[in-house]
Design a protein that fits this description.
globular, alpha+beta, 10-stranded antiparallel sheet
């Protein structure tokens, strides 16, 4: 753990949470549910099929008691939530390497541990960067290794967002892969339920606008990532993803006409989520086996 001097450093100097292990049977039901949210005519995979990349986010879910949620909907406590005051969380990005896909319907084990922790000072103040490393195993073999990068601050930022949303203008691209992503409150609510995400910015309009200062509901970062990976699943269904990385850059809001697009290459693909006002709300890179 690399802690630099600053206001947040003392809070986490002695923070060394142990690894935690969870198990799940990888039921086909969550896959069928997300397939419906993405408007697929039938489940994209069933029992015995490989789980699409990062769809493991639908599993190993934790549901804290209602009393253990903060006013924003985030859990008050958690194994890898840093003990800093007035904690605000941002999902920055991550990486995943694939030894072999997880198989739907087979018992799986998840082992999560704390990775690097650093403090940095940005233009908006001091930030705490936390990486959580997770291994996913089936039949005693490591199938996936994932790292998620999370950024925390103490107190809210004064980030600038558009005052009003343009829900009519669509993003444009000449890239080979293109999938429109037209999000609305129904989609965000359903995705929140599928991922046990109670953060109110995704489903509570008065809270998102009046308390957090957003112009509308915020589209989940993981939903943007999965939308980008749909380009690969539909465009190259026979290619096995060996590794991927993604970065969440700018918030997108429900009602904006988002576009997932990408340019396939021989060994992989470069992907992005765009709107008429931002060329890269999120980006991803995929490498094929």
């Amino acid at each position: 753990m690399q802690i630099t001097p600053g206001r947040l450093g003392p809070y986490v100097e002695s923070w060394h949470p142990e690894a935690v292990t969870d198990e799940d049977v990888l039921s086909p039901a969550p896959v069928a549910a997300l397939s419906a949210v993405l408007d697929r005519p039938e489940p994209v995979a069933v029992t015995g099929d490989p789980l699409p990349p990062l769809w493991h986010w639908l599993y190993f879910l934790r549901w804290p008691a209602q009393r253990d949620l903060g006013s924003d909907g985030h859990p008050l406590n958690g194994r890898f939530l840093p003990p800093i005051p007035d904690r605000q969380r941002m999902f920055a990005g991550g990486r995943c390497s694939v030894n072999r896909p997880l198989i739907i319907g087979e018992p799986a084990r998840r082992v999560s541990s704390l990775g690097p922790v650093t403090t940095k000072r940005g233009s908006s103040g001091e930030l705490l960067f936390v990486t959580v490393r997770t291994e996913y195993l089936q039949r005693g073999t490591t199938c996936l290794v994932e790292e998620q990068d999370l950024v925390y601050r103490s107190g809210r930022s004064a980030a600038q967002h558009p005052a009003e949303l343009d829900t009519a203008t669509a993003a444009q691209t000449d890239e080979a892969w293109r999938i429109p992503l037209e999000t609305d409150p129904r989609m965000l609510f359903r995705f929140s339920a599928l991922t046990a995400n109670a953060h109110r910015i995704h489903y509570d309009v008065p809270y998102a606008t009046d308390e957090e200062g957003f112009p509308g509901l915020v589209v989940h970062g993981p939903l943007l990532v999965l939308a980008m990976l749909e380009l690969v699943r539909r465009g190259s269904p026979d290619r096995l993803v060996r590794s991927l990385s993604y970065r969440l850059r700018r918030p997108a809001f429900a009602g904006e006409r988002l576009l997932a697009s990408g340019m396939p290459e021989a060994q992989g693909a470069a992907l992005r989520i765009a709107s008429h006002r931002e060329e890269r709300h999120a980006t991803a890179e995929v490498t094929f086996a």
